[in-house]
């Protein structure tokens, strides 16, 4: 897979995992473009089938990229700390209409866990949210 294809695949998966509402897509695209220059994701580390199922590559560059995007979108602050209100809004937006508020809170409680470092926090949180989205949709 060539690097431009990898970038597109990562953008699609991150969009699915993080985009709150359509107007946020522009913000996400800007963040992705900015973060791409610093993360240096290896094309061999990316498998689109794994990404779309919520199984992210255990790749330091991929983790840096997710952290950078999370910070740009306010999911993590500048110190890498999770922002629970932003994650709750995100989980609510990702859920199908009519999803019980308690179910959403359970997802937030399960996914919004501060890890040993900020990159691992971004990686685990985003992976968990994408997997929760798949559970919401039954896929």
From TrEMBL:
Keywords: Secreted, Signal. The keyword Secreted applies. One of its GO terms (molecular function) is odorant binding. The keyword Signal applies. Coiled coil: none annotated. Its main location: secreted. GO terms for cellular component: extracellular space. CDD domains: PBP_GOBP. It comes from the Eukaryota. GO terms for biological process: sensory perception of smell. Gene3D superfamilies: Pheromone/general odorant binding protein domain. It is found in: Secreted. Residues 1-19 form the signal peptide. Belongs to the PBP/GOBP family. This is Uncharacterized protein. It comes from Phyllotreta striolata (Striped flea beetle).
């Amino acid at each position: 897979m060539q690097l431009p294809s990898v970038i597109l695949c990562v953008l699609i998966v991150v969009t699915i995992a993080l985009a709150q509402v359509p107007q946020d897509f522009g913000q996400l695209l800007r963040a992705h473009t900015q973060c791409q220059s610093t993360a240096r994701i290896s094309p061999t580390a990316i498998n689109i089938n794994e990404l779309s199922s919520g199984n992210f590559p255990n790749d330091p560059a991929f983790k840096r990229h997710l952290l950078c995007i999370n910070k740009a979108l306010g999911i993590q602050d500048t110190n890498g700390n999770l922002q629970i209100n932003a994650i709750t809004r995100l989980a609510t937006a990702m859920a199908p209409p009519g999803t019980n508020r308690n179910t959403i809170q359970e997802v937030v409680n399960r996914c919004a866990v501060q890890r040993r470092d900020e990159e691992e926090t971004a990686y685990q949180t985003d992976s968990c949210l994408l997997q929760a989205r798949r559970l919401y949709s039954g896929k």
